[in-house]
């Protein structure tokens, strides 16, 4: 389930199933043509900020600011972290219970924003946990093969 916020005022929920039934084709890079209720719609992605999940989309000559949140983003938001306010994050906690499949960092490592920190398996899905900011890893409190509970401390930044 995806949560979509348009112009910071309208919120919609969209399932993966409904996305799969969309009648849409990419005409040129970042330009799309879709049919909605037998009506032709042209869409263009004007700007994109993957880390903030923010896109500017032009649909039939109207421009919209669109935030897209997947299930992990929604869980992070439910834990009290604000998507896009990553500069203040000093700790990474488990967004859900699961098994640590891989740990890609160790204490003292310098990381950049969006570097892969670890992979957490939960509900038979692999969830890649990325660095929310640039910084140095102070400590890693987990190891590969370990089971963690929701909100367990995983990584601390200096």
From TrEMBL:
InterPro entries from the UniProt entry: Biotin_BS (IPR001882), Biotin_Carboxyl_Carrier/Decarb (IPR050709), Biotin_lipoyl (IPR000089), Single_hybrid_motif (IPR011053)
Keyword set, alphabetical order: Biotin
Keyword field contains Secreted: no
Protein origin, superkingdom: Bacteria
Iron in keyword set: no
Domain called Lipoyl-binding: residue spans: 80-158
SUPFAM superfamilies linked to this entry: Single hybrid motif (SSF51230)
Name under which the protein is recorded: Biotin carboxyl carrier protein
